[in-house]
């Protein structure tokens, strides 16, 4: 009887109680189109619809603003190209967490995992969900704010719905991603087409006024102009998300670099043309005073159909939130597999092939940040330095792998000039906020270092009291029974 009780308290593995099952780990279900839609869906969020004013404000002129959008796209494309080598060399999901851990050890990898999984991704999902609720409610409350807590409740409903979809099926999650990515791109194409018609069909000089003296009022101060570049790069955030789920990508040696190349070109092309279209209707001064330039654009051009723009923002935010939940849950899964997160986060439902505990953990953290919704935007600003530190660390890992694994199979082998240029850019993006906003930078570093006591207690301390193992095993078994999940042996070598 005692042996039976002990057996019931031990976590199950993938083969216990599952006859004839040959599937192991996460299913390779993502096609090239799915990969493109995930990257495009994550990059193109609410920002391009709501507020490209940040770039205009810091750049000062239309000409420099457009240069910033192009340069930001090219910079992220270089970074994505470098990540293509890393992703086809290290066949592990987890993105920079996997690369930093592999190159520089588990401690630095854990700090990257901690800030990304616990703060950055859930906060991003919360912000996107709140943006969705605000713009969905705007048609019902055009001249006043919605009732207290209504936006938060609608945002919570979206997070819960997308968490359920991602728990039920990878196919359903990718279908949602594909649909809303197409929808948001079509909305942006409509804006681009309107701008094209304004300039080349209507031919009214008022539509080209913003392009006269295109560099007038350009920011003279280099520091101010560089902040425009920082804002532009923020709009491209998400370019490296496919590397976090590379294990689920079919034929990653082909589809990973292709997905990255197609997505970066598409997003840069769309961003630049959308900004050009906006300038045909709005002057730079109008853009600075409008809190939602795309909605203002629709009000001026679409008349009774102007309500379609808030719907386009909703489509954009749903796709972004879904992409964040999908990729973030895999980050928890990989972290648990490496022993840096609780064991139950590495467990998969054998029927759905989804890491249900990891998906639900992502959703719950996002819901928790709704409580801090008034301050969550500041929190995102605080952790930008750790974001670029991690990106720089991943590029440094590329140099390390070139030295330590010179003969490894590299389907993508970039010319070293590209990682050199990108690493220099990352260093500049780390130094800029230190010089410009030392207080916020210090807070961001402090948030990152909160992972130190967690690492010391849960990972470094090996001889924990017996009751600790009893509690954690009991929790693991409870979660296994609740979600019908099992631990899968994912110890296969994932390096080339």
From TrEMBL:
Key word Repressor present: no
Predominant subcellular localization, coarse grouping: membrane
Region annotation Disordered: where it falls in the sequence: 1-22
Entry GO terms, CC: plasma membrane
Keyword entries, A-Z: Cell membrane, Membrane, Transmembrane, Transmembrane helix, Transport
Superkingdom to which the source organism belongs: Eukaryota
Pfam families attached to this UniProt entry: AA_permease_2 (PF13520)
Transmembrane segments: 32-50, 62-84, 118-137, 149-170, 182-201, 227-246, 258-282, 302-333, 354-373, 385-403, 415-435, 441-461
Gene3D superfamilies for the chain: Amino acid/polyamine transporter I
Compositionally biased intervals (Basic and acidic residues): 1-11
Cellular compartment(s): Cell membrane
Family membership: Belongs to the amino acid-polyamine-organocation (APC) superfamily. L-type amino acid transporter (LAT) (TC 2.A.3.8) family.
Name of the featured protein: Amino acid permease/ SLC12A domain-containing protein
């Amino acid at each position: 009887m005692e042996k039976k009780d002990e057996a019931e308290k031990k976590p199950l593995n993938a083969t216990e109680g599952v006859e004839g099952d040959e599937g192991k780990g996460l299913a390779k279900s993502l096609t090239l189109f799915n990969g493109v839609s995930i990257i495009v869906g994550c990059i193109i969020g609410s920002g391009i619809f709501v507020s490209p004013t940040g770039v205009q404000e810091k750049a000062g002129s239309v000409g420099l603003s457009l240069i910033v959008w192009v340069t930001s796209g090219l910079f992220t494309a270089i970074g994505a190209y470098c990540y293509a080598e890393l992703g086809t060399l290290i066949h592990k999901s987890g993105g920079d967490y996997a690369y930093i851990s592999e190159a520089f050890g588990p401690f630095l990898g854990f700090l990257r995992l901690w800030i990304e999984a616990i703060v950055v991704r859930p906060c991003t999902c919360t912000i996107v969900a709140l943006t969705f609720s605000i713009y969905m409610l705007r048609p019902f409350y055009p001249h006043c704010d919605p009732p207290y807590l209504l936006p938060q409740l609608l945002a919570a409903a979206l997070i819960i719905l997308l968490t359920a979809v991602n728990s039920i099926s990878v196919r359903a999650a990718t279908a949602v991603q594909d649909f809303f990515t197409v929808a948001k791109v079509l909305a942006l194409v409509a804006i681009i087409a309107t701008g094209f018609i304004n300039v080349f069909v209507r031919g009214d000089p008022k539509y080209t006024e913003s392009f006269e003296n295109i560099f007038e009022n350009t920011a003279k101060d280099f520091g101010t102009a560089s902040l425009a570049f920082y804002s532009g790069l923020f709009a491209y955030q998400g370019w490296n998300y496919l590397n976090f789920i590379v294990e689920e990508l079919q034929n990653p040696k082909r589809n990973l670099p292709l997905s990255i190349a197609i997505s970066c070109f598409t997003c840069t092309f769309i961003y630049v043309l959308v900004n050009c279209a906006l300038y045909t209707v709005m002057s730079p001064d109008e853009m600075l005073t409008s809190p939602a330039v795309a909605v203002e654009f629709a009000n001026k051009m679409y008349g009774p159909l102007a309500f379609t723009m808030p719907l386009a923002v909703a489509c954009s935010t749903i796709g972004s939130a879904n992409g964040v939940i999908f990729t973030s849950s895999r980050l928890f899964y990989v972290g648990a597999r490496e022993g840096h997160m609780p064991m139950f986060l590495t467990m998969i439902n054998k029927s759905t092939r989804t890491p249900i505990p990891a998906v639900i953990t992502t959703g719950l953290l996002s819901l928790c940040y709704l409580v801090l919704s008034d301050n969550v935007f500041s929190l995102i600003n605080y952790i930008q330095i750790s974001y670029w530190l991690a990106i720089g660390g991943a590029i440094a890992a590329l140099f390390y792998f070139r030295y330590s694994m010179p003969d490894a199979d590299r389907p993508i082998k970039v010319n070293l000039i590209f990682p050199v240029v990108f690493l220099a850019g990352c260093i500049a993006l780390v130094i800029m906020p230190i010089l410009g906003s030392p207080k916020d930078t210090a807070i961001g570093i402090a948030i990152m270092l909160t992972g130190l006591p967690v690492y010391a207690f849960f990972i470094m301390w090996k001889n924990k009291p017996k009751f600790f193992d009893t509690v954690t095993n009991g929790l693991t078994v409870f979660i296994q029974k609740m979600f019908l999940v099992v631990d899968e042996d994912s110890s296969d070598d994932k390096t080339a």
